Amino acid sequence: MKKTMKNKNIKIFLSICTIGGAITLSGCSGEGSVQAQSNPSTLATKDLSAFVNTYWYVPKDYLLAYSYSSSTSPKLTAVNDQTIWHFTSTNGGYLMGCSFASTNNGSTWTPSTIIGSVTANNSVSLGFYGSLLTVGSGQLTVSSGQPAFLMQMSAGVGPTGLTHWAYMLPITSSDASWSSLPGTNNVSVPTATAAGC
Description:
197 residues, two-stranded antiparallel ribbon, 12 strands
């Protein structure tokens, strides 16, 4: 019941953001560039408390990522990148929590600490602090009628790296994917996140 209320609160928050942060396009007559304009008085609030104690995952359709290694042939390899976020606190437009990522079907998980921000116009920037810093950027939006983060990220050090874009969707224990995450060998959210960050 509590998780259902959280998802309803997030949906309400995003509906307000969508309505309140309406963007109009100008310059569409073919004579110039398109510019997005927002009215600052209608932008969304930075109260992100509805995200506390929520989990997010990569749905099946968005698992594809590419890893790079200068020492292999081919240098680019398609991989499944399943990532779980667990937001634990918020403050003044900032989200904090833990992230767990796997590119080997859930055999191992790499934890990191999330510190990120969501601006009043729903732009998102998340820092993932672990063995190296990864920065993901994107937009808080709606996908298939539910709240979503549309994110892009790249990480790496010189000769190796990973690039991935995905919709991150909310997940609760009542979802089938909770006990068998897409892109894994039947790994559950509790198993993937057991190590903490």
